[in-house]
Amino acid sequence: MKIPLRILIVTGKNDYLCRKIISKMGKDQTVLFHSTIFGPIHSRRLGVSLGVNLMPDDGKVCSFDCLYCEAGFNSQGRGTTGLPLREQVYSQLEEKLSEMRANGAPLDVITFSGNGEPTLHPDFPHIIESTLALRDKYYPNAKVSVLTNSTMIFKPEVAEALKKADNNILKLDSAFEETLRLLDRPNSKEFTVEKVIEALRQFEGTGIIQTMILRGSHEGKNVDNTANEEIEALIEAYKKIRPRKIMIYSLDRSTPEENLIKVEKDELMQIGRRIESATDIPVDVN
Ligand code: SF4
Question: Which residues are registered as beta bridge partners of 260?
Answer without folding.
Answer: 216
